[in-house]
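Structure tokens please, single chain.
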Amino acid sequence: MRQAIDAFWTGGWDSSYRVIQAALVEQRDVRPHYIIDPVRRSSLHELQAISTIRSALRRLDPAAADRIQELRITPIMEIPEDTRIMAAYRGMRASAYLGGQYVWLANYAQSRGLERLELSVHVDDKAYHFLRGKVEETDEGIWQLSDDVVGHERELFSRFTFPLLTLSKLQMREQASRHGFLEVLENAWFCYHPLGGRPCGVCNPCQFTMEEGLSYRLPWQGRLRYRLRFLRQVLQAQRALVRKGRRVLAR
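Here you go.
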């Protein structure tokens, strides 16, 4: 049997694809990690998605489901902070957008002594900008930071590997269909700010889902909000200007 992996599992499309693929196709044991942020409304949806995916995978292949170990849940406020990691993040963020989750992921990996925590960064992720040209493929067919990379990227990304780095969401969907687990994968969750228990259409994960070819995963209300989001921003800006003008006149 191939070596077990440590994988960050959010219940989202990309990380769920990797966990299922590793357990079902590669027949590897998976040690899944989840960091819970109590103030984020999507946390319960993510945990529910993980539970639903486990159950669906068990119906498909009980042995594969058994290869996924108990979820290691850590509250975000219990992760020790490292000033060097934060400084590296700020240095990288100065040149292009990078999600703040990479700070607490790096802090988490460091505090737990993890040297090969799998992150499901894919070709359309914002982080790909920082990894392109700075990674090398291993004998296992996954990607890791090249040994000669130093500086901010080394501080932030050296504790991770990237098994999906060259794949898109649509390619994952094709592979999941080919290997017979697409129906299981469709239980993944992605929205940060659900409305009525359904994807909102305007948060970043919803926008990425729309733009990366999986718009069918949003309800029609979410798709409509996505298409109207710029109009809403314009109207909000206009209202803010009107309120500001009224305050000036009232002085």
